[in-house]
Amino acid sequence: MNSTLMSRGSPHASRPDERDPVIVVEELTRHYRVRLDGEGFVEKVSRFFKPRYRYVKALDGVSFTIRAGESVGYIGLNGAGKSTTIKILCGVLVPTSGKVTVLGVEPFRHRTRNARRIGLMMGQRTQLLWDLPVRESFDLLGRIYDLSRETYRANRDRLVEALGIGDLMDTPARMLSLGQKTRCDLALTFLHDPAVVFLDEPTIGLDILAREKIRDFLKAEKKRGVTIFLASHDLDDLEIVTDRVMLIHQGKILFDGTQEELRRVTGGSLGTLEDTVRRFYREAELG
Amino acid sequence: MKYLAYTRCEFLRGFRYRANYWATLVIRSGAAIPESSFRYRANYWATLGGAAILVVIQWSLWTAVYRNTGPIAGISLGSMISYAMMGRVVSGFLSEPVALPAGKRIWSGEIVHDLVKPADLHFQLLFQNLGNALYKLVSTGLPLLTVLWSTGVLKVPRLPVLAVFAMSMLMGYVTVFSTSLLSAVITFHTKSRVGIDHVYTVVELLSGLYFPLDFFPGWLRRVADFLPFKSIHYVPLGIWSGIIAPGAVASSLLHQLIWTILMVVASRVLWSGALRSLTIQGG
Ligand SMILES: Nc1ncnc2c1ncn2[C@@H]1O[C@H](COP(=O)(O)OP(=O)(O)OP(=O)(O)O)[C@@H](O)[C@H]1O
Ligand SMILES: [Mg+2]
Predict the structure, then answer these.
(1) Smallest Cβ distance to A144: which of B5, B109, B110?
(2) What is the pLDDT of residue B71?
(3) Whose Cα sits closest to atom 24 in ligand 1?
(4) Taking CB atoms and an 8 Å limit, are A93 and B279 in contact across chains?
């Protein structure tokens, strides 16, 4: 995977729509079944024996294609379906219906095969080994992904340098601050040269400078040709890192295009991405 | 064998707290010691102390029981002491992996990170817990063994017996792990641990943790002989102490091997089922 990534070279070498599709999603739906708890004692007991359910349509006919080297921002209000999409693309959640392929395979059918080529970072959940020095987390992943010693060292050193975590390598993860943990987590996500990374709110709870560092890092990784799928409520992240934005609302994609196109449809060329998105919600009367 | 990396991490994790204690003490000399690292260290000494007390109690108990009688159920005092003492030494290694992290991680959602690794989750857990078991063996079992051996309470058998014992103990570990994984799967479905804990006490009895199966009445012995649980304590300790006669060792090992494989397969099938319903229901 890595070699195809490299041979493609700079993402600017060819027009985006000519590059290979990395993620193809067609008419994807995902329903969650939520068990209803009765009101009052009798109802609670009877519901125990005869449960009733409510169905949440977390995703309701989502389709999109993402090509190699693209960087896509995923925008949506709380509960819009962003994390659900990411979980399905990573193969840890099975879709209710629809077709999903990531790098040519169906993620939930070939979870471990998919896992080798993707990276996942969730801002709220660290994958660091809690009690051990950060270095051990790197070593573990190096072995789990079967990286050769040279690749492992080179990648680790590059990421440690880029994210400035050299001083943290011998500290147990539980002693790190949130921002330090996030940077280490990000480095771990990119350790095995993933062709595509999914980032779910990577800058949650970080200060201005820490966010800036992370954005710079992601921009650099994008230049290296990594496909980036970034969901965040910090629209400044998306404005700086991504070229294309997708706006999801109640499980449906309402907009899919470049940032300029989003500005155009909302009838203004000024302001930040956040202003633009706010205008979009107001015009669609969704706020 | 990439899964040994998990073993290594979990093994190191056990020792981490102690090393960490000294590090914090040096770095923050004068400042308050973080309560948590102190707790872990205290925990280590408490474990060691508890094990030592149990050793003394068991030794006194069996010596008293044997004072006015000859061999009980064909077992001499020497073999009995050897069985009981060695039982204390390996009890950490063969104890129920209560720290089976799967349950906790499923509920906290952290399991997502384990699922997006190109590694089998069942083996991740098996080898991770092996690290924890080895930590317990080295940190409490080994000091205990050294003391018991140097004071002459426990005799170490010859090398071939030792090798067979080690093999048997490893199968015992896989059995206890699989049993615990099975109970984790049941917990996952019933969403409650009530019941499982009671069943586990019976499992411990049938495994030979408290005394050798030779003490059981005939019918219970036949039940215990059939079930997989004697693989956990009785077979390895019986080999170590000579309670299992040399002629019966081979058949005991075969029983262990068959049940180990069956338990691994059974726990794996049910575990995969639970995992599938997790990815279907959403976590
Ligand atoms: N395990 C679950 N069981 C039932 N409903 C769920 C489950 N997970 C998510 N949902 C529901 O599905 C919808 C989409 O959730 P999702 O987590 O994908 O939203 P999100 O866009 O990531 O939101 P946020 O910005 O708050 O992280 C929500 O209505 C949520 O309540
Ligand atoms: Mg979310």
Answers:
(1) B5
(2) 81
(3) A78
(4) yes
CA–CA separation, A235 vs A13, rounded Å?
28
User: What span, in angstroms and rounded, lies between the C-alpha atoms of B100 and A180?
Assistant: 28
CB contact under 8 A, B5 and A143: yes
pLDDT in tens, B36-82: 344 456 667 777 777 788 888 888 888 888 888 878 888 888 899 99
Residue A72 · residue A246 · CB < 8 Å:
yes
In a domain, B1, yes or no: no
What residues contact A4, with CB distance under 8 A and at least 6 apart?
A195
State which fold the A68-95+113-283 domain adopts: Rossmann fold (3.40.50)
Compute the average pLDDT of residues A153-157.
96
pLDDT value, residue B193: 59
Q: Which domain holds residue B50?
A: 15-25+34-276
Contact A58, A248 (CB under 8 A): no
- List beta partners, residue A56: A32
A80: burial class by Cβ within 10 Å (0-12, 13-18, 19+)?
Answer: buried
Tell me the pLDDT tens digit for each residue of B119-142.
888 888 888 888 888 888 888 888
Please judge whether B2 and A144 are an interchain contact, meaning their C-beta atoms are less than 8 angstroms apart: yes
Its pTM stands at 0.84
B205, part of any domain: yes
Classify residue B4: in a domain, yes or no: no
B115 is a domain residue = yes
Is residue A78 classed exposed, middle or buried when 0-12, 13-18 and 19+ CB atoms within 10 A define those classes? exposed
Q: How many domains does chain B have?
A: 1
pLDDT (mean) for B232-258: 94
CA distance A127 to A122: 9
Q: What is the mean predicted confidence (pLDDT) over A120-139?
A: 89
Measured between CB atoms, which of A32, A131, A145 is closest to B118?
A: A145
> B118 in contact with A at a CB cutoff of 8 Å?
yes
**Half-sphere CA count of B256, side-chain side, radius 13 A:** 29
Spatial contact of B41 and B18, defined as CB atoms under 8 Å apart: yes
Q: Which of B35-39, B143-147, B168-172, B241-245 has the highest mean pLDDT?
A: B168-172
Alpha-carbon span A29 to B69, nearest angstrom: 75
